[in-house]
Design brief:
The protein has 433 residues and is an alpha/beta fold. It is built from 17 helices and twelve strands. The strands form three sheets. It has a five-stranded parallel beta sheet, with helices on one face. It has a four-stranded mixed beta sheet with strand order 10-4-12-11, with helices on both faces. Strand 6, helix 11 and strand 7 form a beta-alpha-beta unit. Helix 7 crosses helix 14. The mean pLDDT is 95.
């Protein structure tokens, strides 16, 4: 019996994280972590729903909500089977809406809204199959994965036949890696100790707690004041010692030459990478920075607009670490395209997860990448932020600084109804106060 999507609803959910400066960095000085939250209602006798969200930073979330309303007709009345049987075709139709795409195309609020809708379809698909999303993807054949990928505009970097070959390369050993992940989990790093608005004492206390919990990779925010960054780097290095990895993140604030100058001053702290050193659209700028700062790596991707910009970053040798974002890209289909391009160019995928729900999302993507694509953990590590997980029905499970594979069906993004009611903007109690 086909499952028909009978209603698509969307809610504006905002958490007042600016009160504690959780999430603060050189650009986002007062973030209110927010979600455009999509719910798919179906006629399934089992009551199967689909949940999806896209992450924003507070004001303007209503714009993405409006974009969902502009696009939801692509799902209403459609059966799940009609969408998944031609997944790449569905993705191309929703991103090619001849009227709505004028507001993009494939960028900004429209692309974020597309991600929320597409991810909700994947959540529904995984629930229908009774599997967590990572397991659904791992169990798909290479041919089925390739059939989900939108290759438009990227065939000069990755052709379908090349993607198929990459997926077939490690097909016979997938079961071994899956068993490994179920026992050991996927390696992660923490950003929770390094927000720019935190005092030195709070940073020191949080780093010590992280060490005690088994963390070996820490990220700090930089970019507003060099002397301040040096002082905070001293604090963190004192606590983590020379053997743990220290990453730095400028959140796009610098010009190209400024990034090189600033990072040369911070090089004494042995940074593993500098993240978003300049505009996320500046491919040649990233390439110049990467050449000047080597062997320090350059990481970018959380604000990368689409697979085409990722393609150019990879072709230009501009990034050492590919930071896919589960929401900025328009859902799982486009993420698959970037994961496979990164595999072709030999660049490790290290997902961004600094935002509400992003950890719940990206654990699935990293597991798929390791089990079915890269077959390697070399230089691969996924961000973890210890914020807001209590609002999710299936929150991430961390053990010794690693993501333990989720076992519940779906994409792990369903939020608790009481949290949705309390933090809905502007009517929820959190905002009436």
């Amino acid at each position: 019996m086909p499952t028909t999507i009978t209603n698509v609803s969307v809610r504006d959910i905002r958490f007042p994280t600016s009160l504690t400066l959780d999430g603060s960095d050189a650009v986002n000085v007062d973030p209110d972590y927010s979600a455009t939250y999509v719910f798919l209602q179906t006629d399934s006798p089992r009551g199967l729903p689909g949940h999806g969200l896209t992450f924003t930073n507070g004001r303007g979330n209503e714009v993405t909500v409006a974009a969902v309303h502009a696009l939801k007709h692509h799902l209403l009345g459609r059966t799940l089977e009609s969408l998944t049987e031609d997944f790449a075709g569905f993705w191309l139709r929703i991103t090619s809406d001849s009227q709505v795409r004028w507001l993009g195309p494939e960028k900004g609020a429209i692309h974020l809204a597309t991600g929320a809708l597409v991810n909700a379809v994947w959540d529904l698909y995984a629930r229908a199959e009774g599997k967590p999303l990572w397991k659904l993807l791992v169990d798909m054949t290479p041919e089925q994965i390739v059939a989900c990928i939108p290759f438009r505009h990227i065939t000069d970097a990755l052709r379908p036949a090349e993607a198929l070959e990459i997926l077939q390369r490690n097909q016979d050993t997938k079961a071994t890696r899956e068993a490994e992940m179920r026992v050991t989990g996927y390696p992660a790093y923490t950003t929770s100790a390094g927000w720019l608005g935190y005092s030195d004492n709070k940073v020191r206390s949080l780093v010590r707690a992280g060490i005690a919990q088994g963390w070996t990779h820490f990220k700090m925010k930089v970019g507003r004041d060099l002397n301040d960054d040096i002082r905070r780097a001293v604090v963190i290095r004192e606590e983590i010692g020379p053997d743990c990895k220290l990453m730095m993140d400028a959140n796009q604030i610098w010009d190209v030459d400024q990034a090189i100058e600033w990072m040369n001053a911070l090089a004494e702290f042995d940074p593993y990478w500098i993240e978003e050193p300049t505009s996320p659209d500046d491919v040649l700028g990233h390439a110049k920075i990467a050449k000047a700062l080597a062997p320090v790596g350059v990481a970018t991707g959380e604000a990368c607009q689409n697979r085409v910009v990722f393609k150019q970053l990879l072709q230009a040798g501009a990034i050492s670490f590919c930071q896919i974002d589960s929401c900025r890209l328009a859902g799982v289909n486009e993420v698959l395209a970037v994961i496979l391009m990164a595999a072709k160019f030999g660049v490790p995928v290290c997902p961004h997860a600094g935002g509400v729900g992003l950890c719940e999302y990206v654990q699935h993507l990293s597991l798929f990448d390791y089990i079915a694509v890269s077959a390697s953990l070399d230089n691969r590590i996924t961000e973890y932020v210890d914020h807001l997980h209590e609002h999710f029905v299936y929150p991430v499970l961390m053990k010794n600084g690693r993501y333990m594979p989720p076992l519940d069906p779906g994409y792990s993004i369903e939020m608790k109804e009481e949290s949705l009611d309390y933090y809905e903007f502007p009517s929820g109690e959190a905002w009436r106060k």
